[in-house]
Amino acid sequence: MTGRNATPLPGQPGAPRPGAGRRIWEIDFLRGFSIILVILYHAAYDLGELAGIRTLFGWEIPLGSPLLEAARNFFAGLFIVLCGISSTLTRSNFRRALRLLAVALIITAATYFFNSSAAVHFGILHCLGVSILLYGLTLEKAGPLTCAAAGVAVLLLSAALSFLLKNALIPFDWLLPFGVHGASYVSFDYFPLFPWLGIYLGGAAVGKSVYASRRSLIPRPLPVSVINVAGRHSLWIYIAHQPVLIGIFYAAGLLR
Fold this sequence. Notes:
The chain is an all-alpha fold. The chain has two domains: 22-89 and 221-256, no CATH class; 92-210, no CATH class. It has helices spanning 25-50, 66-87, 93-114, 124-138, 144-164, 193-209, 226-232, 234-251, and strands at residues 55-56, 59-60. A hairpin with a 2-residue loop joins strand 1 (55-56) and strand 2. Helix 1 (25-50) runs parallel beside helix 8. The radius of gyration is 21 Å and the shape is globular.
């Protein structure tokens, strides 16, 4: 049947791309899981560093411990991998990059006003915005192996750079985006391109291979949950969660 309003068959002009219009359930879920962990981490940081509360419900807040830092890197890395996957499922990467960079600049200004000595100059949103922009300009049409190779190259270069600069005295901070800065540099949030661009490109390689069909890998997804909803709105939650947390702690009398 080929009536005026009939949906074009796959392959015909005007037909939707395979999987278009469908959200991939597990990506939303994992992104929501990551953003919830970010909120918990920042709540613990705010209580420990800003309110001076070192124990909560009898549990010590292990700020600065290797275990907590490893957990932070895990969920941040997961979020960056998912961003890399998502970049292969859209054609609007340039717009996404500009939106993230605009928000990142606002965060830089806000944190500079809040505490200029630890302002966010190149945090996770700066890193993601630049990574998406670089991907869109260079590797958007490349295959998964090329993306994977580029990711490995960035990680190897990052390791080499770290080794070469291990005992070097860096007198400047203007190479912050590449992980090069002075020993006294401090920031609330810092995610340089080396090594995190490599993690992002690994996600792009996964997106171009595992999710080449643009469909979920789970044939029968679980019902939509708060975690999935959080995953769909992760950027806005990331923007709002710190002001909300600080407002709650002020209202509770924990911050002065």
